[in-house]
Amino acid sequence: MLRFNKSIELAAIVLLTTAGLGAGGGQDERGKALASLVEAERAFSRTSEEKGIREAFLTWLAPDSVVFRPGPVEGRPVYEKTDPANPTLLTWGPEFADMAASGEVGYTTGPYQVRPRRGAEPSGFGHYISIWKTQPDGGWKVFLDIGVQHGAAGSPPASGGVASPAVTARYAPLSPDALRDEEYAFGRLAGSFDQAAGAKGTRRALEEFASGDVRVYRPGKPPAVGKQGIKELVPADAGRVAPGTERRLGDYRVGVAWSGDLAYSFGTSELSKSGTAAEKTAFLRIWRKDASGIWKIGLDIELAVPPEEKKAG
Fold first, then answer.
1. Which domains are seen in the chain, by residue range?
2. What is the pTM of this model?
3. pLDDT for 42-75, tens place per residue?
């Protein structure tokens, strides 16, 4: 069943003008808007370093935010329950960022480090992905947070350059009706990817649906970039429906930018076989239209979701 993200807000129309990224927005305006997104991510990390994980996430998470634990859940309640005295130190930095032409949604990704306390050596490493949205006041807030753990892979990048994709096509903001139509069509496309994954396996489906510079994330390994990265991180039979097995797409959400050039889909899927526990997977995919106007997956991440423990009694 499709559950569309209700992202159509009157405030977004105003934000298109303030961001300077409507139909007349150029590369200079895009660069400035991207810089503001990157700086918001860095400020988020600084807040974590200075005030702790709980304070940072409650400061920067949007009211409707989603975090993966490992499945998608409401974000703010997770951190409201976090011990404010927890000494764990979490820091990170963006190495790649992208945003819609309309300027109201974008994302960053990069490495993170975990220390058991301030001054200690790092004890955990990984890569995060944050989807950001502008709020009615024009500021950025985190809408979605997800990541993978892996071995040591260097320090979070300093405040230097952050890579972003070259954008050749220009997109004007859609009308509310056109955006609803685009979101519905995109939701069906996102669902068709899951069908292809069940029939062919996730690897082959990604090779068909992904862009040439797709970023692929799987737990235990640093992310890989490009079609070769799909082969490196995604097993050949992953996601394929074997005889006697059923693949079911859970409740999932999609969102499309006002400009109709950047979108995301996230949720869960299950592989189940009679007499065995279902294998549940949480996923996020970020999509961008290519120069021909075709949706392509630019980022793919999947996390295994452990079976829920049955409650006694």
1. 10-150 (3.10.450.50), 176-305 (3.10.450.50)
2. 0.89
3. 999 999 999 999 999 999 999 999 999 999 999 9
